[in-house]
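Q: Hi! First time doing this. I have a protein sequence and I read that you can turn it into a structure. Is that right? Here it is:
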Amino acid sequence: MSYPYSITFINNSTQSGTACLYQQDSGHYGPGAMSLAWMARPARPNMSTVFSWTIDYSFYWSETGVLRPGVQVNPGQTIPADPRDSNSIVLTSPAPYNFQFDNPQQRPQQGTFYVTGDATIPPNTVTFGIGMSGAGTFGVQAQPNYANVFTPHPSYWLTFGNYQQGQVLDVDSMVNAVQIVFPGNVYDMRVTLNPDNTFTVQQGR
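A: Yes, that's right. Below is the predicted 3D structure, encoded as C-alpha cells:
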C-alpha cells in the first residue's frame, strides 16, 4: 500500500453543493476514456470535508448501457490491480447480461494496464476501466474483441457543483475546476472555495 494522500476542501462561499474530486486523462489512456466523479462530498457554506486515498489500483466493470456524460457507474465487480504484475484482465459474458472478469494476468510492460472485452461482450452494454483506492476513476465503453490500454499518470482536479460519486463527467465543459499538484514529499493539500467562487490551493491540511 502506498503513502496516504489527502485534500481538505473548505467551502467559504455562500453556495451549498458537492465538492467533486476527479482525475483527468493526460493522453496516456486509450480512446474513449472518460473521467468519473471519483469522490464526491456534500459541503454547505462554512463547512469543510476531507478526501483521502492511497495510490492502489483496481479493475472494475459496470452495466451502464451507452457510456456518456451524466451516466452513473456503479461497479458490479472490482478486482485489485498491480502495474507490476496483475496488470491485465479480460471481461467476459458467459450468459446474457451476466458479466465477469477472468483472473488477472501479467503482461511484460510494467506500469500499464490492459482491459479487454472478449467475443461474448455485447456492444454498448457495459463499461470497464480502472479505479484508485477502491473507487472508479476512468471508464471506457466495452466492445467485443477490443482491448483498452491505461498507463496511469494521476492528475488530480477538484470542482464544485451538483455531482454524484461515479457519475461520468464532461470535463471539457467544466468552467470552474482547479488542478491540485502535490509537490515532492508533500501528501496533504488544502483547497478553499472563496466567496467569489474562485479556488485557493495551499499545502497542508
